[in-house]
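Example for tutorial group B:
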């Protein structure tokens, strides 16, 4: 019986593979050009990142994608106002807070309102209380020295989580958040001698959260005290 003649195998890669490789190379070049012509909006990227951090948490009481944030990068489009340089102010306060080991409990943000100094509530106050901690006055003293150097107004804002509080002194979170803000203002006026017309206090209760209240980590972030060195147009 005659053996079947084997087909001759041509050397080199199949013709279709060469065509496919050329097409992949062209696609790669196309997407590289698209990326080169694009620009990344840093603020939008940051907003997406923070949204994912809140949505993708694994444990109820743990962080989502990273540990508690330290200091937020300040945007490059904030102009220098006459008499106050927010970038310089940011760096000055950041350095002093770092020296006190507060980088995990304090967030600094420069935004359209001014310079926001955000404290987790347990830095300044015991849980469920509006009495300043004895060691918190050292932190407020440091900020008072900064406030005295500038003419801009300062607003103290108290915030809570959504867990109800019903005590004889604080019937609701409104009273707790407002009293905390007022007590910081009183300290700045009565102890540190800040001009009262530079200061204001606001209590927002649970109604201005920065994270979800359905887990311990989010509630911890929402319990906070914000000290805002206001920009000139916000001071009016």
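The residue assignment follows.
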């Amino acid at each position: 019986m005659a053996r079947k003649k084997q087909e001759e195998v041509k050397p080199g890669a199949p013709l279709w593979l060469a065509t496919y490789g050329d097409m992949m190379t062209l696609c790669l070049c196309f997407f590289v050009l698209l990326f080169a012509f694009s620009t990344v909006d840093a603020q939008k990227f940051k907003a997406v990142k923070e949204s994912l951090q809140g949505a993708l948490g694994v444990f109820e009481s743990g962080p989502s994608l990273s540990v508690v944030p330290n200091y937020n990068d300040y945007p490059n489009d904030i102009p220098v106002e006459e008499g106050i340089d927010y970038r310089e102010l940011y760096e000055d306060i950041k350095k002093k807070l770092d020296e006190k080991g507060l980088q995990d409990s304090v967030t600094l943000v420069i935004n359209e309102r001014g310079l926001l100094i955000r404290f987790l509530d347990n830095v300044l106050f015991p849980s469920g209380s509006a009495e300043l901690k004895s060691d918190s006055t050292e932190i407020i003293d440091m900020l008072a020295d900064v406030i005295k150097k500038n003419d801009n107004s300062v607003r103290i804002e108290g915030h809570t989580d959504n867990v109800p509080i019903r005590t004889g002194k604080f019937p609701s979170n409104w009273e707790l958040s407002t009293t905390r803000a007022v007590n910081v203002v009183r300290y700045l006026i009565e102890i540190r001698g800040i001009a009262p017309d530079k200061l204001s206090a606001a209590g927002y209760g649970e109604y201005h959260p920065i994270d979800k209240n359905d887990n311990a980590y989010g509630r911890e972030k929402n319990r906070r005290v914000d000290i805002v060195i206001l920009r000139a147009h916000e001071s009016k």
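Residues 129 and 175 are 11 Å apart (CA to CA). Compare this with the pattern of hydrophobic and polar residues in the output above.
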